[in-house]
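Box 3.1 — From sequence to structure: Oxidase
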Amino acid sequence: MGNNPSALEQCISAVGNGRPNFAGFPNNPLYQIQWVKPYNLDVQVTPAAVVRPDNAQDISGIVKCASANNVKVQAKSGGHSYANYGLGGTDGAVAIDMVNFQHFHMDNATWEATVGAGTRLGEVTTKMHDAGKRAMAHGVCPDVGTGGHATIGGLGPMSRMWGSCLDHVLEVEVVTADGKIQRASQNENPDLFWALRGSAAGFGVITEFKFRTHAEPGEIVQYSYSLNFGSQADIAPVYSKWQDLISDPKLDRRFGTEFIMYPFGAIITGTFYGSEAEFKATGIATRFPSGGKLSIVTNDWLTALAVDGQNEALYLSKLATPFYSKSLAFKPDQMIPANKVKEIFEWTDKQDKGTLIWFIIFDATGGAMMDVPMDATSYSHRDKILFYQSYAVGLPLQGKTRDFLTGFHSQLQAAVPGAYGAYAGYVDPALTDGQQQYWGPNLPKLQSLKKRFDPADLFHNPQSVRVV
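Predicted structure (token representation):
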């Protein structure tokens, strides 16, 4: 751009009206460090602009500038997209950084919380607690932004009890492709509201949410069972026993659990939203494997979330690194046979991973998630009871690391041929049919609504909903 700003840059600068720190452009020598701030360093992307608006009117103006210049738009809330989709995913998009949208209000009559889309989950948790010890379902990574999390799904250990984060959304304010600032709920713009709860990246920029909340659980029992074996093969029977537990349709909904593989062993975590006496009464503890290091503690709500984050190594969430990830979803009749578990874990031992920083996480879902009809929102994985995701960091990321995770994924698909579908929160740019895997049977309706609300595909990333 040099000394001749482009029409897009001039337009965006006019919206900012001279405000400092409103927009950054590629001609800034510190653009990547100060403005772009990519999360996955393995996905190189240079936006045409990064803008930090202060209000919905700013966003409306930015959207109109992008539309007039035929440039794509994506919103960046916390910026934790595995493929940097909040920056556009490919070069040349306008990234709208929601960092200034941090407002919060709790209505003490209805216990409905209004939350700015740029607020991080850790802040949401603290603010809800301080406003009357209220809570809602969400993930345990404190640095993830509400805007992406509450529109892509928003799964966490309490999802079996309360559903997903997007199931708690009552209403939003959103800027659509025509630049209009609108409200969307079950009663106002219901079709748009349906699309935004599961695939908002293709339909608009949400500025704030109104959430229903719950009273915080008074006591929370946290179960941790760690195994430090020399091989994954030794852990295979432990996984199979854990899988038997989570596939029980009568498993108490107050219980959320994960099985996490890592280089020198594995850990099973369990979070029960109730007292220790209630937890013991469920009989869950007696059904867990034995032989490892066991820890059972009782915590309050805030401490429990911090412990869950630590168990998942989410201290890495603040670090920009080169990494790779895969995921897959499983229905109740798609559990991995024990003999196949053994083969997969043995295969894992034999691989050159190319890194010591890798995790494979199996996460139980179901419960309250399955109470919501498949077509109630655009989120489509209501029939799943188990997700897995793999995650590996390389400095730099090597081909053998990608091959390891891709190979593990292929092993799972071969063991359970019918398993299909990926969670869009674990976005995988390598998928050739990403839209189908993310939204499944809800994709045709999404495509129809995309034609209605964004026919020019202004809100676009490499795997967002398309007009067909």
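Summary of the box: The chain has a mean pLDDT of 95.
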